Amino acid sequence: MAFIVFAIALGGAMAISSVMAPMSIIRDVGHTPFTSIAFAPAQIVSSFAQSVFSAAVGLWFLAAYVGLTEEK
Length: 72
Fold this sequence. Notes:
Mean pLDDT: 81
Order of helices and strands: HH
């Protein structure tokens, strides 16, 4: 169970990061204040999405652990 949760967490984090990778490359290549300001909202949203996804996977793992160890 832990391996499945780990694989999903890693895959989801990679998917979110791969969406934002081109924007960070453009921001780094530009070296202008405009590119930093233009892509700042996207980076904030990406950071928020990664935090939400990480918390959701952590809670899912906790729920799976409780479900497996609960006595019936």
